[in-house]
Amino acid sequence: MGNKKMEVFVNLTKKDMVVSVEEKILPESLVFESLNPFPGYYHNLPTDPGSMYIYLVMDKNHPLEVILRATQTIEKKYDWNFDAGKAYLSIGSTLLDAIRIKHLPSLDLLVKIQEAYVDQGITFLMKKKLKGKLEANVKIVKFLELEKLADGIFLNTQDPTFAYIEVPKYLSSEEFTKVSMDVKYNWQGHEFDAASASFYLGGVLFEAVRIFSDKMDVEYLSAIKKLYAEKID
Known about the structure:
Number of strands: 10
Structural class: alpha+beta
Strand content: 35-45%
Mean pLDDT: 92
Number of helices: 4
Helix content: 10-25%
Shape: globular
Distance between the termini: 32 Å
Largest sheet: 10 strands, antiparallel
């Protein structure tokens, strides 16, 4: 039987270090760039615009459906291709709603993408500045197409540097950090970055770990999955 592909609704939670973007954005809008989107991965990462992770902070909670519909309209109208998801950022006591952008074709398109979203009725937070390097707790929600490689192991078909491994139970942020530290301490293989995740499939919520690495095969991911299961139990 061939590997099964499926579209799923994914939740991802992580800590991110961000800094305000000051150029090539709508004047007085609040935009963040992730300084280190994969802190557990120590290889040099590309620095081109397509590899940047950008948060466009909105002035209110626009539903994911509205963001997806606007994104599809923008991509079709302007023949742009980028990835957009809904993001929630918590920076200290400040809570922010945002659109998380990646695979940006060019930095020069950033302000044009903002303007295109405004044309679609999505408005951005203005005249609020947060300076310096900031630690944010981030939750991202989006739809993905995953390919099942083995039991409890799934690969992102659009970007095969990402995979999802199923874990036995939900972990709080503190529990996930502790378990992941235990896993990394006992891991002898190729490095990876991990983030807490869950996804809906067939009406069931699955708890998972998102894995980022340049080495993705069933043996490698199975070993990580096994070690997480051992440390959780």
